[in-house]
Input
Amino acid sequence: MSADLRTALRDALADEPAFSVDAAAIADAGGRRARRRTGLAVAAAALSTTAVLAAVAVLSRPADPDPAPAPTEVVHLGLDSADEARLDVIASTRTTWRDDGSDEFFRHDRLEGLTADGLVLRNRRTGPSVGALLGLLDPRTGTTDWLPDPPANLYGMQPLALDVDRLVLGVGQGNGHSVLVFDRAARQWRREVVEVPYGLEVHVPPRLELHEDRVYVGSIMEGNPGPMRWWSAPVPDGGPADPEPDLEGAAATWGSGMRLTAHPDGRVVLTRAEGSTVVAEDLPAGCERPTDFPDAAPDVVLAGDVPVVTFPCEGSQVTMVYRPGEVPVAIRGVSALAGDDGHVVLATARTFLGALMIEPGTPARTYLLDLDDLSLGRVGMGPHEVDVALAAGMLLWNEPGPGDSKDAYDVVWKVARLD
Amino acid sequence: MARRDDTEFAAFAAACAPGLRRTAYLMCGDWDRAADVVQEAFIRVYLAWPRLDPERDVRAYARRTAVRVAIDQSRKGSSREVPTLRLGERPATDPTDGVADRALLMAALADLPPRQRACVVLRYYEDLSVETVAEVLGCRTGTVKSQTARGLAALRVAYARHGGELADPEPAARTHAEGVMP
Output
C-alpha cells in the first residue's frame, strides 16, 4: 500500500455528508454574544471586581479590521502536566564555595548569556588577586575565546544585548551604572557611565533594558516601595539619565520594533510604530494585588512578539501568555524569566523587579514552555541564579549542584540545544 | 455598518461553508464536530464582519479563524477525537480497500499534535505556502517547516507499521490559489 498524501487527504473526504449552513442562526448567535459581551463589560466596570473577561484585544484604531478573534477566555496550564524535558547538554560549568574561611569566594566560573551566533558568555575569576574575565565559549568545540580585560568591575553585570557584532553589558549599583560595549570585530571595550539619581533601591538590581540607542534603568526608590520609575540615557555617550515619566509605575521591555508595558492594575500594552494594542485590561481572574506591595510592577518578557507577563498576586504569582489571536494562557505559581520566538523559561521562584527571589529551603523548579503546542518540560531543579537565557536555538539555565546546602554554595550552569 | 449586511454575510457563509468544513474535518476527524467548528468560526466572522475590509481577503480570515477554533477545541480535550483505528493494530479489512486507507490516515492524523496536524492539512490538502500557513497559525515560517516535517515523519511511521508507505509529497500542485477557499 503506497499512498500519496495529497490523494489520501482528498480520499478521506469521500464520505462527506450533506451540509448547509444556517446563516440566520449564526447571526442570532452572534448578536446574542455581542450583547452578552457588552453586558459583561458594563457589569465588570460597575462592580470593579476582577476581570470577567480576562483579556480583550483592543486595537488603538478601532476602524481597522481585527486580524484575530478576540480572546474571551483563558486556558489554564497546570505544572503537573509537565514532562521531563529531554535536553542535550552541550556546555556546563560549576562553582562551589564552602563557608570555611578559604578564598573560594573569589573563584567562580559562570555562564551568563547566549549570543545571537550561538556562543556562550562565560564569566570566570580564578582568585582574589585577579579580576574576572569574560569569554565566549563555543559549545561546538569547547574552547573559550577570552576577551581583553573589561574596563570596569563586573559587579551586578546584566547582559543587555549579545549581538553578532557587539556585546552590551550593564554593570554597577545604586546611582553608579555603566554600560560596557565590546566591539567583537575590533576586540575593544568602551565604557559609558550612566548617572541616575541617588536613592535608587540598592538591595535589588535595577531592571536594565537596551532599546535602539538608549539604555533604560527601571527601579523603585530605596525604602519606598512605591511605583517603578524609569530613566534613560544614550548609548554611546552615557551621562545624566533623563526621567521617563510615561513609563512610571510600569514594567517595560523592548523587542524588535515593539515595546511591552505592564502595569500593577493588570493593564498590558504592546506598542509598535503604527499604534498601541491593549493586550489585557485587568489582572488575571483570582489575582489580587499583594497587600504589602500593591504598586509592584509585573515582570515582562517578550518571546518573539508574544507578550508574557508575570503578575505578583497575594500569596503567589500568575504568568499570562498572550499569543496573538489565541486564547490567553494562565500558569499559576511560576515567573517568566526568558523567552525566544518559540519558548518561554518559567520558574517557580518568585521575581521582584526582574530579579529572582530565592528563598532558602524552598526548592524551585524550572520549566520550558513550548509556545506552539503549549507543552511544558521540566528542566531540573533551580534556578539558583538569575542567569537564564534563550537564544540561537539554545537554552541556558542553572540549578543547585549536589553539594548545595545552607553551608555551601554549589551551582551548575548548563547550555542545551533545543532542536 | 454598511458591511454588516446579513444577506451578504449569508451568501459568503454559504459559499465558504463546505470547504471550511472539509478542512475542519481533517483537523478533527468528525463531521459533526467539523460542523460545530465552522459554526463557531462563522459566529466570530459575523462579529468581526463590520470591521472586515472588503478589499482584503475575508475568506482567508474565515479559514484562519476556523483553523484556530479547531486547534483550541482539540486542546481543551472536552471532545477528544477517538480514532476508529488504533495505531499498531492491523486493519481488519483488505488494506487495499479505500475505507481502510481512510481509517489509517485519520488514525495517524489523530495522533498528531494539533499544530502539526494543522500544518500537514494546510500544506498538503489546501496546498498553502509555508508563509501562508505561518500567517494562518500565527507563527514563524521555521515553525511551520519543523512542524510539517515532524508531522510527515509521524505519518510515515504510522503507514510503515501497517506495511504501507507514504510517499514524499510532491511540491505544491497549486490546485488552490493562495488565500482562496477550496
